[in-house]
Write a structure and sequence with these properties.
heterotrimer, A alpha/beta (328), B alpha/beta (152), C alpha/beta (663), B: 152 residues, alpha/beta, Rossmann fold, 4 strands, globular, C: 663 residues, FAD/NAD(P)-binding domain, 5-stranded parallel beta sheet, 18 helices, 28% helix
């Protein structure tokens, strides 16, 4: 990744130098060794702070909604999975494609700090990525991890190494495939449970919700000018969970609103401070859509009609759900 | 919250039915004209088309204590607006599947296609749905996913 | 402040027998916002309506709830009542306590309880009602007909007959369409030209009808009542007003070896030509790709011989802009291409022809002057095999899943005509089913079999093999369960028909919808069969689905009746319960547009004030054309932000109803 980082930085400097862009959207270091903040760089000098490593997980495409409306052209760095969100936003006319220079960049999977911490690592001084190894330097000495073991869940079921959009690409010679599991595996596990077990599972998960709205704020599909839950006229406006039903309402409706538009970028689960596996709601919709209406990848292109704005006369009937076997 | 028991203590469900103005609502009128009864537990809300039914309405009904929600529209291919029920069909299929995934009784929601001429069918559908909901009993799960204690 | 009045109707004993109407009024009076509640025997009677009007005035009511029969029964009546008392007609809600309450419940307690809930639900809704006004828009009293075949001509003639202007836009140099190429018509066997050409002449001579031949509609904007169209009049290099149609130029033209489209390429025409003798307009056209003058700059013979001075080599395409109140789509059909049907040897042997080609081979104005001769050697065919359903009712991707409807009948016609004219010719017809539902159709088919001895074989042909100047037809007879081999001189293929290739672009231009086969979809398949879901766009002829000439003409006239009904109005009143986009919430994502069946939603860039140094930004926001929106509400649910709402059935209103029921 060090080599890729160099190439990207070089490219960004060149874009500034020849005046083809006036800003670059990338990441910079945050307060901690593993905190990476999406950031707009306005000159080659500012690029000193630019960083690209295993913790640059944030999907930058959503920032383009605002940034592409500014004067001049902005270069954006897109990992393969981000390029789906990018396309989806272009399709929904939310970003101005003409004002963007999209650079598809290599990704060998992003690291999950919670997995590292869960292994009992404390007082982290620095983190070193070395091929298939991640070495964490702490006050109490070094701790080595197999990179694959500390990747974000979403990288273990990576959508693929190919970008679906971009004006140019900066890719590694040897590209790493991190896929080890099917992304619907966990959904299937839940489906196999009894309704009561599922209910228990979701009750314990969703009851953790503190309505901080982090999932909504990070989601590239949640890009409404004003969310229905903030809109007095919607009849469901609620700033917080005023009654016990609210968080269910919020998460079901949020998943429904992004159904057919969600690219499964996994940002919702990554940012949830309560570690609610929100992606399992989105993936359920994706799985159902694939099974019922034919495989559909939101953001794979900028033209195809989304499954909820399309139909076939012979579509499955809703009774399909109630006719499923099992109790109640 | 509504009273859900009769004087002799039997469970009386609360059922909300969203009916399309052009087909099912007229079908309900025909059931009335034909004096075909169905339980008074069913309360109908008139909408222009099944595609006007927002998942928000369904969840809201459950939130406020409904035990069952049924959406009735024109038969596929017969929509007054040509395509409305096709969109409704996809939306409701996905929503119901999601509710099932959350462990909520999947028979509390239903979509039925009832034409303006099907008064008999309207009454049969409502009788059948009300029977199922009465069997399921009071909806506790959707009403309250959070307070574990109240359920235990 | 809300001042709601509630009126509970007894409907004689219809309601009062199972609902305690006084208790309902009593309960309603206790609802917040309600200032008046009463009951009466017959609310819909003049006395009942007078009571409502008086109560509105006496109590300064702002909204009215009537607990009575179904709104489908008397909503319109009561709207007028409240309007007469000075209220907006949409400040009214009906609680259906008859059809949906008193008539289905026997227990008076149960019925009363439910009626009270229905009343309070209507009260909850009416509190959120807003005054609505039906929009008005003007109607341009002129129709556009796209396509000048028999469908377009008939629609145009009927509309003109009613006194309205009509423009026919036809992409070919002449109007007339497919019917001009047909020899005789079933089941009467009268000659197509004899019945069509007078209509073509009528259209040309009608003062109200303007024909744009060799032209195409390029762009349509606007909506019902006021469409604006751009028509491209292609350069024909001949001045239409000067050309007399004498034909001197066509006989002198040295570039003669060009496929004659009218005869489907079975013979040739010059570079300057008149499609056929009865063409309308009877004006020559230069095929620029064949014209020596256009290609090399030399020649100019036609210009020299034209005594009218009509030849204009430098003529350019012309764009004409016209306004219309209604649009008729009559884009018609074509037989499918048979290049993928190698088993029938269509590309290998000139003696394998399509049914339309056979029409030309049997027509007096055709390449053989009406004598049926084999295209390969000009001899009389003695054995002819017809193959039905070539590409119709077909499962694979080469063909069409639907029945082309006309083939059974025209094949019976061909077989009969051949047997009559050439009794020494054997005619075999391979078919899957013979479908003859139409007036005098089955009788016609039976005549072909019983009187003319046409040999019908139930089964499909596997292969046609050209050999020694003959065609070996191998098929199966499903009734005798035998393989059949016939040495034929000619094979005629009943090719499926498909919508004209322009159908898709025309549909896009008009935001009218088409099905997977590119046939235009009706506003309702049974009850509105000649209207497209897009208001002001009507469907005439085969563009909507396969049909024969009488059906086409019937539909064309029905379509004209609908157009006349529209053009007869001075103003269009629209249903005010339509969608509305809240621009401050809309993010312009287009999902609403994708689900709108009427093409009522467009987008505009608007400037919005925003916090920060830039102060404002331009955003793409949805606009609903209220004249086009029909108020289904599909967009309101597709819209994630709730920017799209439906007047009269707003999200807040329906939520209030849900809350009132579940209270």
């Amino acid at each position: 990744m060090q080599e890729i980082f160099g190439l990207i930085k070089e490219k960004a400097e060149k874009l500034f130098a020849d005046g083809s862009v006036n800003r670059v959207l990338g990441w910079k270091k945050g307060e901690t060794e593993y905190d990476r903040i999406p950031s707009v760089f306005e000159s080659a000098e500012e690029l000193e702070e630019f960083v690209y490593d295993g913790f640059c997980a944030a999907n930058l495409s959503k920032y383009l909604i605002r940034e592409s409306r500014e004067d001049g052209k902005i270069a954006v760095l897109l990992k393969p999975c981000d390029s789906y969100s990018f396309n989806q936003l272009v399709k929904e006319h939310r970003i101005k494609r003409d004002n963007i220079y999209a650079i598809g960049i290599d990704c060998d999977g992003k690291l999950d700090i919670d997995k590292i911490k869960a292994a009992g690592v404390k007082a982290i001084q620095s983190i070193e990525e070395n091929g298939s190894e991640v070495i964490v330097h702490t006050l109490y000495g070094d701790k080595k991890f197999n990179r694959q073991d500390v990747l974000l869940e979403r990288c273990l079921c990576c959508k693929g190494k190919d970008h679906v959009s971009g004006d140019e690409f900066i890719l590694a010679q040897n590209r790493v495939d991190t896929t080890v599991k099917d992304r619907f595996e966990d959904v299937r596990k839940l489906e196999a449970m009894t309704p009561d077990e599922r209910f228990e599972f979701w009750r314990s998960e969703l009851s953790k919700c503190i309505r901080c709205n982090a999932c909504r704020n990070v989601c590239p599909a949640c890009n409404c000018i004003k969310c229905v839950f903030d809109n007095e006229d919607s009849g469901v406006a609620a700033k917080a969970n005023v009654d016990t039903f609210e968080e269910n309402m919020f998460h079901i409706i949020r998943a429904f609103h992004v159904a057919g538009r969600c690219t499964d970028c996994g940002e919702c689960s990554r940012v949830c401070p309560q570690h609610i596996p929100l992606h399992l709601l989105n993936r359920k919709f994706i799985k159902d859509i694939d099974e019922l209406y034919g495989e559909f990848k939101a953001g794979a292109d900028t033209e195809t009609k989304g499954p909820l704005t399309d139909y076939r006369t012979g579509d499955a009937e809703p009774s399909l759900i109630s006719d499923r076997g099992g109790s109640n | 919250m509504p009273v859900k028991t009769t004087e002799n203590g039997e469970f009386k469900p609360l059922i909300v039915a969203f009916c399309c103005n052009w087909c099912s609502y007229a079908g309900a009128d025909l059931a009335g004209t034909s004096r075909l009864s169905y339980p008074a537990d069913v309360k109908i809300i008139r909408v222009p088309c099944s595609c006007r039914v927002n998942p928000l309405f369904i969840l809201r009904a459950f939130q406020r204590g409904a035990d069952g929600v049924i959406i009735c529209g024109c038969h596929p291919g017969d929509c007054h607006y040509t395509t409305g029920n096709y969109y409704a069909r996809r939306r409701m299929t996905l929503l119901f599947s999601m509710l099932d995934y959350l462990g909520i009784e999947r028979k509390r929601t239903r979509v039925e296609w009832v034409s303006a001429a099907e008064g008999v069918r309207f009454s049969e559908v409502m009788n059948d749905f009300a029977k199922h909901i009465t069997e399921l009993g009071e909806n506790k799960k959707l009403e309250d996913l959070r307070c574990k204690k109240s359920l235990d | 402040m809300h001042r709601i009045g509630v009126f509970v109707c007894w409907c004689g004993t219809n309601i009062a027998a199972t609902v305690d109407v006084k208790a309902v009024a009593e309960a309603a009076r206790k609802e917040p916002g309600v200032v008046f509640a009463t009951d009466y025997q017959y609310m819909c009677s003049e006395a009942g309506q007078a009571l409502i009007r008086q109560a509105i005035k006496d109590n300064a009511l702002t909204g009215v709830v009537i607990c009575s029969c179904s709104p489908r029964m008397h909503e319109a009546t009561f709207r007028k009542t409240v309007q007469a008392a000075g209220l907006n007609p949409y400040m009214l809600e009906i609680a259906n306590i008859r059809e949906q309450c008193s008539w289905i419940h026997k227990d008076i307690k149960e019925g009363t309880e439910k009626a009270i809930i229905l009343a309070r639900t209507a009260i909850a809704k009416v509190m959120l009602n807003k005054p609505l006004t039906a929009g008005e828009s003007a109607v341009t009293k002129r129709a556009l007909v796209i396509g000048g075949g028999i469908a377009g001509i008939q629609s145009a003639l009927d509309i003109a007959e009613a006194g309205y202007e009509v423009d026919i836009v036809e992409k070919q140099p002449t109007i007339g369409g497919k019917m001009t190429q047909i020899d005789k018509t079933f089941p009467t066997l009268d000659c197509a030209a004899c019945i069509l050409t007078p209509k073509m002449v009528d259209a040309a001579q009608n003062e109200k009808i303007k024909i744009f031949s060799y032209s195409q509609v390029e762009e349509v904007k606007g909506f019902v009542g006021s469409f604006k169209a751009k028509i491209r009049k292609k350069a024909r290099f001949v001045d239409e007003n000067l050309c007399t149609g004498c034909g001197d130029c066509t006989s002198k033209c040295p570039s003669k070896k060009n496929k004659n489209e009218f005869n489907l390429g079975l013979d040739n025409r010059p570079a300057i030509y008149i499609p056929f003798a009865q063409a309308v307009p009877k004006v020559a056209v230069i095929d620029a790709e064949a014209c020596i003058k256009k290609k090399t700059g030399k020649c100019g013979l036609c210009e020299k011989v034209c005594s009218a001075g009509a030849i204009k080599y430098d003529q350019q395409d012309e764009i004409i802009e016209r306004e219309y109140g209604a649009i008729v789509v009559a884009t018609g059909f074509n037989p499918i291409k048979l290049d993928k049907y190698d088993e029938y040897a269509y590309s290998q042997s000139p003696d394998v022809v399509t049914s339309l080609e056979l029409e030309r081979l049997m027509n007096a104005a055709g390449p053989t002057q009406g004598t049926l001769l084999r295209p390969s050697d000009g001899t009389h065919p003695h054995t002819i095999v017809f193959i039905q359903c070539v590409g119709s009712r077909c499962d694979d991707a080469r063909g069409k899943s639907y029945c082309s409807k006309i083939c059974c009948m025209y094949t019976a016609k061909h077989a009969m005509l051949i047997r009559e004219k050439y009794p020494d010719t054997d005619v075999h017809v391979f078919y899957i089913d013979v479908r003859t539902p139409g007036k005098n159709f089955d009788e016609f088919y039976r005549r072909a079999v019983e009187q003319y001895g046409v040999d019908y074989i139930k089964g499909m042909v596997g292969k046609v093999i050209p050999h020694d100047g003959k065609l070996l037809v191998q098929g199966s007879d499903l009734i005798s369960n035998e393989q059949v081999k016939i040495d034929a001189d000619m094979v005629v293929l009943a090719a499926a028909i498909e919508p004209d290739p322009t159908a898709r672009s025309v549909a896009t231009m008009l935001t009218a919808s088409i099905d997977t086969n590119d046939f235009f979809t009706e506003a309702h398949p049974k009850l509105r069969p000649v209207e497209s879901p897009t208001a002001g766009v009507f469907l005439s002829g085969v563009c909507q689905g396969p049909k024969d000439i009488p059906e086409t003409v019937a539909q064309a006239s029905a379509c004209a009746a609908k157009v006349i009904g529209l053009l007869a109005k001075d103003k269009l009143l629209s249903n005010p319960c339509v969608a509305r986009a809240d621009e401050s919430l809309c993010s312009g994502c287009s999902v609403c547009q994708n689900v709108c069946p009427y093409g009522a939603i467009t987008y505009e860039d608007r400037e919005f004030r925003i916090p920060g140094p830039k102060r404002s930004e331009i955003r793409r926001v949805a606009q609903v054309n209220e004249a086009v929106c029909q108020g289904c509400g599909a967009c309101t649910v597709a819209c994630p932000s709730g920017a799209m709402d439906l007047k009269g059935f707003s999200t807040k209103q329906i939520m209030a109803e849900v809350d009132a029921i579940c209270r």
